[in-house]
């Protein structure tokens, strides 16, 4: 999913002359003649089919002249030319009687709750040129008329409805000779695409069929669409290769087939024919081969998406000639070589460069640092080495930087350079800088807009650095898998925006500070509604976050050397979804207050020296899906009457003094509860668990991301 995708091209491509003509018609005074009785009757018949008319009836019944009615436009002769009733919460069916309005040009019923079908009478009307019924709940098969009478229809937008079944065949489309724009995206059409759109509709300029279930090959006949500028059939199940004939449609400006099962290579001699191409999206298919040299001939190219394919080889130097490029998305392929061949300094308009998960090597080319408009740069999961170069601080617009999982060195240098990019909100640089020291306090400054910081998996030595204390917008902090020592500093509580803290697997010592129990965002509070420039991947490619706020509220202090007791004040962190204090040297009892953390889905206190009994009230934590208190020194009964009864033996293991039905040590007969009661209650709580699981389907996902391997890009 690429949020920026293809937007500017579509904006440019509304059907200008047509719309202009309509605007002129609509703009003229329409009161010269009032409407005739027959047209009025047709409109009332339309109204009669609505079960919810958004107060139209009031307006319409109060006035004799239908030309003055809300949503109705007439011409000089008092004949209805437009029915414009978008976004009126209309429900019910679309009446075929609209087809009796003999001078009707324009129907816009977009964004309502209309159901049923699209009456054939409208599509085959002798007058209507624009039908927009997008964003409704229309269903059934799309029926076109087989009448051969002249049909002037130019624009048909049936997108975002519930239409199903096979798309009408080529011969049915044949009568729509004037069709300019067809948008049937976001329905549930199945079967093959019609083979010959443009022998019948030679004026077709926009064809959008994305988000359906079309299968089979791309019909070569599309190549006859000499006027076609926009072709979007992404998110279907198309297979086979791009037919050579397709490239005869040389007016194409936007060619978009993401997320299908297409394969084959990109043939240079084909692509050069598309000299008007501004956006190419072939992402998430199975294309192989190299990017052809001739790509340099596509001088108007602004957006290039070839992500998530099996493409390989070096990026051709000719890419330098596509000087209009704004977005380059090549992540998740097998591209390799040094990037040095491409002179990025020519690509002055570039805003997004995403090369994540390839096999690029060498140094990060300094020519990238001349792209002064660059907003998002993602080079993570490649084989880049060396240090960041000084020029990076010229990227004043840079907001998102992800260079994790390479072999970069000198983190001190990296942070000193990055701090002057004032607009940085996301920095993901983990899995680099192995065994270096965490940079000293006084030299790092800046980062005042930082929201997300990941310096995980670097085996860094040193302490949690003081410069973090100045990051007042920091929401997410990943420092896990390093070798940081010393205590959690008290200033942590001044980080008013921080809601995801992972400092696990370090060598931190001391007690869990009271300051940590004061974190405002862990106590309550809404995360800011910000959006990542690129979706952030987590745990390989399995989880994708579009916004920082989609991350859960997490405190992970596991695998350190913390001592002392779990503070009673932990109960203040009411917003926590996951609390991990495992594998430390914590002692004393499990505080009762933990049982009030009602949002908890993950609670891991395993591998400590906790003693005393298990608080009964932990059973109140109905959302808990992962629970572990194994390897402590707990004693007494395991309270199995609620949520705790749903967890396996491994959650309780290694506490010799614990007893209960799920551990080896069954409670002595004098103390034991009757087994039958335990098991019924247990199954009862399983039902509760199943229900909560159904509601919070993200549980498994959360568990994975917290417990299993963590990697970002
Ligand atoms: C009006 O439309 C209805 C429904 O399509 C049709 O049955 C009827 O014959 C039409 N009447 C006229 C006068 O065209
Ligand atoms: C229909 O109305 C909606 C909302 O005003 C508008 O966005 C859309 O462009 C209109 N459709 C056409 C074809 O003009
Ligand atoms: C429906 O599609 C037409 C043609 O592409 C377009 O002009 C119109 O704005 C679209 N309607 C909406 C609501 O987007
Ligand atoms: C087609 O409709 C969808 C919404 O249903 C819209 O997002 C898209 O921009 C439209 N495409 C064109 C080319 O107008
Ligand atoms: C598809 O249609 C639904 C319902 O109108 C809408 O919520 C959704 O955003 C649309 N999706 C796309 C990709 O246009
Ligand atoms: C991708 O294409 C290759 C041939 O290039 C083929 O061997 C492989 O099975 C395809 N993979 C999928 C998932 O279709
Ligand atoms: C870019 O275009 C120029 C002028 O057309 C040409 O001379 C040059 O060889 C091209 N460069 C690359 C790298 O393709
Ligand atoms: C990537 O390319 C290399 C050779 O350049 C090949 O050995 C490797 O198998 C390829 N990897 C994938 C996932 O295709
Ligand atoms: C930095 O971000 C702000 C706020 O998002 C924006 O207004 C400004 O233009 C950006 N600066 C640059 C140099 O891009
Ligand atoms: C790391 O960067 C710092 C600051 O730029 C520099 O002083 C130092 O010499 C660099 N260290 C190495 C090993 O290159
Ligand atoms: C904890 O401290 C002990 C010594 O007290 C040391 O052996 C151990 O490696 C430390 N563990 C961690 C995770 O730092
Ligand atoms: C738990 O351990 C602490 C020492 O860490 C001790 O003071 C306390 O008495 C113990 N409590 C129980 C119930 O054994």
UniProtKB/TrEMBL annotation:
InterPro entries, per database record: Leu-rich_rpt (IPR001611), Leu-rich_rpt_typical-subtyp (IPR003591), LRR_dom_sf (IPR032675), LRR_N_plant-typ (IPR013210), LRR_R13L4/SHOC2-like (IPR055414)
Domain Leucine-rich repeat-containing N-terminal plant-type per the UniProt entry, residue ranges: 37-75
Pfam family, one: LRR_8
GO cellular component: plasma membrane
Keyword set includes Cell membrane: yes
Location(s) in or outside the cell: Cell membrane
Signal peptide: 1-34
Record membrane topology: Single-pass type I membrane protein
Keywords, in A-Z order: Cell membrane, Leucine-rich repeat, Membrane, Repeat, Signal, Transmembrane, Transmembrane helix
Transmembrane segments: 687-708
Major site of localization recorded for this protein: membrane
Domain Disease resistance R13L4/SHOC-2-like LRR: 345-523
UniProt family annotation: Belongs to the RLP family.
Protein name per the record: Uncharacterized protein
Organismal lineage: Eukaryota, Viridiplantae, Streptophyta, Embryophyta, Tracheophyta
